[in-house]
Design a protein that fits this description.
Belongs to the methyltransferase superfamily. tRNA (adenine-N(6)-)-methyltransferase family. GO terms for molecular function: nucleic acid binding; tRNA (adenine-N6)-methyltransferase activity. The protein is an alpha/beta fold. The chain has a single domain, classed as Vaccinia Virus protein VP39 (Rossmann fold, 3-Layer(aba) Sandwich), CATH 3.40.50. The protein is 29% helix and 29% strand. The chain has an 8-stranded mixed beta sheet with strand order 5-4-3-6-7-9-8-10. Strands 1-2 form a two-stranded antiparallel sheet. Strands 11-12 form a two-stranded antiparallel sheet. The longest helix is centred in the N-terminal third of the chain and has 12 residues. It starts with a strand and ends in a 7-residue tail after the last helix.
Length: 235
């Protein structure tokens, strides 16, 4: 069980545990346009959808999860949260979900699987959760093109090394970056992640910044504390 300020996340059934990437995206995803409907692609434990339920007044928050154990866990976490009436999880793959799109979403978020290296572990569930072949980037971008409302935003967290590739894919579908935050563990470490937000409307000036998580081991930067303080008990 992972306890946040306003909700808790059970994670005993799922291979992918609560991690910094999910918390970053859940805290960072732009909501200035007051989304009415939100879709979380590849929900895992449901943490990002839960964080967005806390941050927004969105009346419809849908999540999508293909792994049966993770799906059951997300449903359990949704039902035990204060926002159970606004959260719904579909047990389906993205390709299946977009076959007959019925909804448009004002915000689509995804913390996609992204180890594209050529190794697999003995844990098939964990591999499915972590490997890019489970959900290629182009599927996410294609889904966003189909499902985003006119003023909708797509927000993802991916490895920094994939940023150019993902941005180029998005451009093919006329989705343009509006905000980019590059994340480093410490000031001395390399950039590890990119938080990217896209819109159908090209902006003249993209908001670009950098976020450093720690000053020292378990000593967090003021910027990271500010971003996540509504969630972590320790801040």
């Amino acid at each position: 069980m992972f306890q946040f300020k306003q909700f808790s996340v059970k994670q005993d059934k799922t291979a992918m545990k609560v991690g910094t990437d999910g918390v970053l995206l859940g805290s960072w995803a732009p909501i200035h346009h007051n989304p009415f409907s939100i879709l979380d692609i590849g929900a895992g434990t449901g943490i990002i959808a839960l964080m967005l339920a806390q941050r927004t007044h969105a009346e419809q928050i849908d999540a999508l999860e293909i792994d049966e154990d993770a799906y059951e866990q997300a449903v359990e976490n949704f039902e035990s949260s204060p926002w159970g009436d606004r959260l719904f999880c579909f047990h389906a793959g993205l390709d299946e979900f977009i076959e007959e799109p019925e909804e448009e979403y004002d915000l689509i978020v995804s913390n996609p699987p992204f180890y594209s290296e050529d190794y697999k572990t003995d844990n098939e569930q964990r591999d499915l959760a972590r490997f890019q072949d489970a959900m290629p980037f182009d599927e996410i971008v294609e889904a966003a093109d189909l499902l985003l409302s006119d003023n909708g935003i797509l927000a993802v967290i991916i490895p920094f090394r994939e940023e150019e590739k993902f941005t180029a894919l998005a451009k093919d579908f006329e989705l343009y970056p509006i905000k980019i935050t590059r994340v480093k563990g410490t000031s001395k470490s390399e950039i590890k992640r990119s938080l990217l937000a896209f819109s159908r409307n090209e902006v003249s000036e993209i908001e670009i910044n950098e976020l450093i998580i720690e000053i020292d081991r378990h000593v967090y930067t003021p910027e990271y504390i500010e971003l996540t303080k509504d969630f972590y008990l320790k801040f």
